[in-house]
Structures are given as structure tokens and as C-alpha cells.
Amino acid sequence: MSAPSIPNLLSLRGRGGARGRGRGRGQGRGAGADAPVSRGQAHDLTIQGTDTDAAVSRLSAVDMGYLSDPYARYFVSNLGGPPTRRFPIINRDNLVHSFLAGTEGQEVPSVAAKQIVSLGAGTDTRPFRLFGPQGRPNLIYHEIDFSVTSAKKLKTVEAAPPLASILANRSTGETSDWSSKPLNGEYFCHGLDIRRLSPTITEALPGLRTDVPTLILSECCLCYLTQKESEDVLEYFSSRIPNVAVIIYEPIHLGDPFSDTMVSNLAARNIHMPSLERPRDEEDQAARLKRIGFETTRHLTIDRIWSRWVSTEEKERVDRLEGLDEVEEWQLLAGHYVVVWSFRGDGFEGWRVIG
């Protein structure tokens, strides 16, 4: 999640007097530069900075050879000099994260339409990879983030011909919404506070299909919401779409000293994650998703994914890039991040054998 000021869902359709309200915390969209900033708004601005960190880490991983992502550098500013190089332990975390995202490319292309909804998408480059020359046909892709982030992404795309050529045929909405019709599908970028999404909202997200298999992505996004808020967001989609799945990637509090250190380090940066307020294990995530209506749920920590899913050849390639002395630190860190994937209905047959 990445920025401060967002219209709610109804304002996208021009309804009611809520137009321009900020992230559910009372910020007026038209407020001047000298308007006071509430505590909630200040926290939202801090969350915006985490997307910048992620973009820099991704580019560092690309530059070192861990990842292949030709679009990463467009979302990192060089005005202050070359981007900061990240240490190997951070690069490896990005490698595993990219590997999980990259499994999409191993799927045999199909003409059947499928849909992805990315929550708190920020500067993610996945749409450019998926809509590129080798992309999957008949794809509907939605990104949801703060209005500032949505507008910034549009400006970045317009200023970079390689990006503009992929997300071509662009159109803009009344607010910070914009969309594109690439050759192999449809793309929508929503400037929207996801905390406004709940199963009680009657308005449909513009462009959202309810008749195709849909994957909801939350990569360190829902963890910034309260449990009720995050469940409302997921129920917004699960109550509308029969064939739906979700992937959640986020830190987890295991009730040990390392977990306490994670929470303290986040607090030092003024970052609050409600999901870390109490110790929980991986089973808690699975139970929560089943309550919401997802039928099949599996989960693995990142260290287990690295061990089970990454090939020996890839591990050896990564080991040759640069040394990693902090092996135990890496294992501790990776053991405190979990990937949970859950699904209901048709369109996710390949997931039944993954675990």
C-alpha cells in the first residue's frame, strides 16, 4: 500500500457526499498544503514510503542478477543519485517473492478469460510482464491503491515509452482512475481506499468481472488493516465471484523474540500492522479464510518455499551472485513470512497438487 488520499468506491460512480474523503480517516481530497495531518493520515504517508523501499529493493535485486525485470527501474527515481544497493538477505527475499509471482508464467496459455485483482499494488511491475509480448491472452487485471499512487503510476507510464506501449489505449476517469486496453486483455488502475470495500457495498468496482475465475493478491497489504477491515475486503470479492482465490504474503507473529523485534523495528518507523498485534500461527490465516467462504486453504513460510519450490540449479545460481554470511538471520526472517493461498470453485485445478 502506498499513498495518502483516496476517494471511496461510491465516489467513483459520482454518488453521495463522500467524494474526496481521504482513506477513511477524514482527509479532504481538496485540502490545501497547510491543512493539518491527522495521525491516521500520517500513518498512511508512512505506508507510502514502504512501497518506495520495495521498489528500490526490487531494482537492487535486478541489478545484481537475482531477478529479471526490465520495468523495475522506471519506478525508482535517480534524482538523488544511484539507487541504494540492498544487502543479499533482502535480495533473496525479493527472489523468493518474485519466484512466487513467476509461477504464473509456467501456466499453459489459455483463451479462457481470467482476472487478477492486486490490492495495494503500488509500483508493482507485474502488469507490464503479463501484458507484454509473451503475456497471457484474455487477461483482466485490476490494481487498487491510494489515489496519489494511481495518479503517479499513470504519469510514470506516460513518460516511459516501453511502459506506454504495453498499457496502450489509455483512458482516465473523473478521479485518479485510469484504464488501458492492451492487445491481450484489459487493465484497470483504481485510486481507491480498499478499506471502503465491504460486502454491504452495492456498487461494482468498474470493470470487475464476476463470471470468470479471479485471483486476489495481497502482498503485504491486508496486514495494515484491522481484522474486520481485511475480512470485509475479501468478502467484497468472495460474495460476488463464485470462482475466486486469494494469495496473501505477509509477516507473521509467532510469539518469539524475533517476532517482538520485528514489531519494534516497525514501530520505530511509525508503521503499525494490526496483524502483528498478537501471536498467531499459520493455521490462524487458514481458519480465517475458511470463515470468509474459501474452501481449500494451504500455507507455507518463505523458508519452506525456498526449500521445497526453488530448484537446486536456481539456488546454486543465486549462491554464485554474492556471498551471504547472515544465513541464520535469513532463515529467521524467512520463517516469519508466510504465503497463504486459498480458493473456491473452478479455475484453480493446478493449486490442488501444490503444497
UniProtKB/TrEMBL annotation:
> Which residues lie within the region annotated Disordered?
1-49
Residues that bind S-adenosyl-L-methionine, according to the entry? 120, 193-194, 219
List the Gene Ontology MF annotations in alphabetical order.
protein C-terminal leucine carboxyl O-methyltransferase activity
Q: Which residues form the signal peptide?
A: none
One Pfam family linked to the record? LCM
Gene3D superfamilies in alphabetical order: Vaccinia Virus protein VP39 (3.40.50.150)
Q: Where is the composition biased (Basic residues)?
A: 16-26
Question: Which SUPFAM superfamilies does this chain map to?
Answer: S-adenosyl-L-methionine-dependent methyltransferases
Lineage top rank: taxon: Eukaryota
Question: Is the Coiled coil keyword given for this protein?
Answer: no
Listed under catalytic activity are: [phosphatase 2A protein]-C-terminal L-leucine + S-adenosyl-L-methionine = [phosphatase 2A protein]-C-terminal L-leucine methyl ester + S-adenosyl-L-homocysteine
Biological process terms in GO annotation:
methylation
**EC assignment:** 2.1.1.233
What's in the keyword line of the UniProt record? Methyltransferase, S-adenosyl-L-methionine, Transferase
InterPro entries according to UniProt: LCMT1, Ppm1/Ppm2/Tcmp, SAM-dependent_MTases_sf
Query: What is its biological role?
Result: Methylates the carboxyl group of the C-terminal leucine residue of protein phosphatase 2A catalytic subunits to form alpha-leucine ester residues.
UniProt lists the family membership as follows:
Belongs to the methyltransferase superfamily. LCMT family.
Mind telling me what this protein is named?
Leucine carboxyl methyltransferase 1
